[in-house]
Design goal:
The chain is mainly α. It contains 10 helices and no strands.
């Protein structure tokens, strides 16, 4: 089965895994949870030539690599060409609001600049049409839960109904703004959209 652009998915998976291993080989501590998380998040996009989808500025990306992967060869991973500009005002507002909401609950146990990177990556992933764990390149919902619990524990703890994470994050925005709940921008393109947001008869 081929990807929509004609690329063999097995080749993409191999490229992502190779990049993840390369990042960890350059890590200050390859067993550190933050290094392993960022290696996965970066490789999920970098292995596809989509680093811009992380939506980190070149300065943020360079600083992230320096913090967690100081032994990485200088030219091993090129910086993202540019941060993606969101011309759709609804998407831009969603990303800005969700990023601020996440950072308001950022754990003091993690670096704030790391929390800023995670918030940006998660917020932009919510614009894409798949389960959040797939859009992030993680291996399942539990990995998303663990990431959010580490970086934004108070917010993660509020998901007592165990909603799917994109749906929950969109609902948190609605609660914060005092407006009716609505799907995240990427939700309508998901295969399970009808399950999460069934039509009322």
């Amino acid at each position: 089965m081929s990807a929509s652009d004609g690329t063999d998915p097995s080749n993409l998976s191999l490229a992502c895994e190779q990049q993840r291993r390369m990042l960890l080989a350059g890590a200050a501590d390859p067993d550190a949870p933050d290094a392993r998380l960022f290696a996965t998040l970066i490789a999920a996009r970098g292995g596809r030539g989509e680093l811009a989808l992380l939506s980190l500025s070149q300065a943020q990306f360079a600083a992230l690599l320096a913090r967690h992967f100081p032994h990485l060869p200088p030219a091993a991973i090129a910086a993202p060409p540019a941060r993606i500009m969101l011309w759709n005002s609804v998407h831009a507002d969603f990303v800005a609001t969700l990023s601020a909401l996440l950072l308001r609950d950022a754990s003091r146990a993690v670096r704030h600049d790391d929390a800023e990177c995670v918030a940006a990556i998660v917020a932009h992933a919510c614009l894409r049409p798949d389960h959040l764990w797939r859009d992030l390149g993680l291996d399942g919902r539990d990995a998303v839960s663990g990431m959010l619990a580490r970086y934004f524990p108070a917010l993660a703890a509020r998901n007592v109904a165990h909603l799917r994470w994109k749906k929950f994050l969109a609902r948190e925005i609605a609660v914060d703004l005092g407006v009716p709940p609505a799907p995240a921008p990427g939700c309508p393109g998901c295969e399970d959209y009808a399950h999460c947001f069934p039509r009322t008869q």
